[in-house]
Amino acid sequence: MWKYYNPVDIVFGANKFNELSSILNNKKYVIVTHPEDIFKKYTDVLSGFHNPPQMIITEVQPNPDYNNILLLLEKFSAVKEIDCIVAIGGGSVTDTAKALASFKDNKNLLTEFVRNKQAPQVEQPIDIIAIPTTSGTSSEFTCWATIWDKEMDSKLSLAHKDLYPKIAIIDPSIMLDKPKGLTISTGLDALSHSMESIWNINANPISAMHGIAGAKMILENLPKLVSDLQNLELRTNLAMACVHAGLAFSNTKTAIAHNISYPITIQHGIQHGIACSFSLPFVMRSMKGVNKVAEERLEKILNDDLDNSSIMLLEELRNLEIPLNLNELKIAKQDWDIIVSDAFEGERGKNFLGNKKAFNKACEELRVF
After folding, report:
1. Which of 135, 155, 173 corresponds to the end of one domain?
2. Which of 1, 86, 171, 358 has the fewest CB atoms in 10 Å of its CB?
3. Cα torsion at 347, 322, 137, 260 (round to 10°)?
4. Is position 1 within any domain?
5. Are the beta carbons of 189 and 277 closer than 8 angstroms?
6. Over 90: is that where the pLDDT of 17 sits?
7. What's the rounded Cα separation, in Å, for the pair 154 and 238?
8. Mean pLDDT across the stretch 348-359?
9. pTM of the model
10. Which of 61-65, 257-261, 311-315, 350-354 has the weakest average pLDDT?
11. Is 183 in the same domain as 100?
């Protein structure tokens, strides 16, 4: 028994960004994007449109933080009538757009959710049109957003069934200017989403099909792309892999690798895409003999058993210069033990089909210590 659901209208292909003007015809909208000059060319296109945006919000931070979103909500509240929010950028932009769409002009609702740990009060959120400029988070395919509270060393997931973007425009041509480091970290984030959807208690045949396809495409294309960043075909392949990843984990959520990653990002400053992907070989090996269906699905990614597949995956990550042991990550063994124990007790850790004993054994075998 299973069910699968994803309502996002996907527009995919090079130069599809140019269709945005017709989509926005006669709509009142606000643009949310990054502050860097590289994004100005996209906002300039819409500003010169016969129906320009009512506001352009550019103060989005990486890993959107509670205090930053409070300031953006205050700015956003000046707009009284709006049909949709256009999010142009990475996952931080789309997550920020979801927070604005949810809480609108009421900062107290954000505070109640983040600081007072109340269930989020989301009523008729504003529609979102998501235009990712990286192949990574797949926030354009999910109904949740990650909000960080750095002051309190915490991370929360804002979730509501109406927070799926109405439209996702996936245009690989606007991803060509992304640097090597960002391409790697976002690509590995998508790899993590793909694999996390497979060793997940919420997996179903459709999510698994997308998870396998996404992981295979990333491992086939990302190593080539980092040596040829302007290659549109490879960018298109990676964008398609990210679509698969999004359609996979939008139905399952993430699992143990992500729960391990959060304190590593907050406390040790490791980028999210790296923090949630370096442990994938260890988690993969730990699934051996634990769940037959998940094991068979994971074996399809690299067409080998999990012992060999985990080593091959480790080598792929090593070739991308990813830190793969505690010394390289600059994490003490006692801190690692706490991180792992807490991760298995956390919400995402409980989505994992495996267990801590097998994971620790895999870490020893693959020498994370």
Report:
1. 173
2. 1
3. 10
4. no
5. yes
6. yes
7. 31
8. 97
9. 0.95
10. 61-65
11. no
In a shared domain, residues 240 and 275: yes
Residue 84 located in a structural domain: yes
Q: Give me the mean pLDDT over the 78-107 stretch.
A: 96
The beta strands (E) that lie in the chain are given as 9-12, 29-33, 55-57, 84-89, 127-132, 144-149, 154-159, 167-170
pLDDT at position 329 over 90: yes
- Cα atoms in the 13 Å half-sphere on the side-chain side of 221: 24
Residue pair 60/91 in contact (Cβ under 8 Å)? The answer is: no
Confidence of residue 249 (pLDDT cuts 50, 70, 90): very high
Whether the CB-CB separation of 60 and 34 falls below 8 Å is answered with: yes
Q: Other C-beta atoms within 10 Å of 226: how many?
A: 18
Verify that 54 and 187 share a domain, yes or no.
Answer: no
Listed residue (182, 185, 186, 190) closest to 213, CA to CA: 190
Query: What is the domain extent for residue 17?
Result: 9-173
Mean pLDDT, the chain, integer: 96
The reported pLDDT for the residue numbered 216 is 98
- The answer on pLDDT for 155 being more than 90 is no
Q: Residue 154 has what pLDDT?
A: 87
Per-residue model confidence (pLDDT) at position 369: 83
Residues 131, 65 within the same domain: yes
In a domain, 260, yes or no: yes
Q: How many domains does the chain have?
A: 2
What residues have CB less than 8 Å from 86, skipping those under 6 apart?
20, 24, 29, 30, 31, 32, 46, 53, 128, 129, 131
Residue 3 belongs to some domain of the structure? no
Spatial CA neighbour of 231 closest among 183, 196, 269: 183
Q: Compute the distance between CA of residue 150 and CA of residue 237 in angstroms, rounded to an integer.
A: 35
Whether residues 110 and 209 fall in one domain: no
Provide the CATH number for the domain around residue 31. Answer: 3.40.50.1970
What pLDDT is stored for residue 178 in this prediction?
A: 94
Tell me which residue has tokens 């398609």. Answer: 240
Please indicate, yes or no, whether residues 167 and 221 belong to a single structural domain of this protein.
no
